[in-house]
Here is the input.
Amino acid sequence: MRVRTTKELRAERRRRPPRCLGHLIAAPLWPLYGVNLGTLLRTCDAVGACLAVPRLPWVREALDRGNTLRQSSCVHWVREPLDWLGGQREDGVSVLGVELAEDAIRLADLPMARRPTVAVLGHERDGIPPEALDLLDGVVEIPMIGVGDSLNVAVAGSLVLYKLAGFA
Here is the structure.
């Protein structure tokens, strides 16, 4: 087996769209740890998605520190998460939560996003706030057999983004 060089891999990749198309957005709207935001930003770049984050004083620094690509990425700054989610739904965007809930779609059964989709990621400890659950069109669950209640938000978001982008 021959390992391909970085140059060969880059030559085979699809060209990125010239601007944000907004077709797929990861939305960790209630973050607890800045390192997770940098990881999600990297995943968004990998799958051609955008990242929606709240306007909190520490978030910009966390994204700058976590952006190991050293290039600008598509970031949407959100003032009021609930208002923003409601606006997305009004615009016809599918709003999908990553949460443990009845009637959730298992990650393995999640289809590729065929229309603009926001993947809402909850707080690392408390999940998606109850008042935001009514704004979701659906919920995806990541099955686990370990003792933890959930995955790290960056890991969970990355898994869901890869499925929605059609890469997994």
Residues 43 and 75 are 13 Å apart (CA to CA).
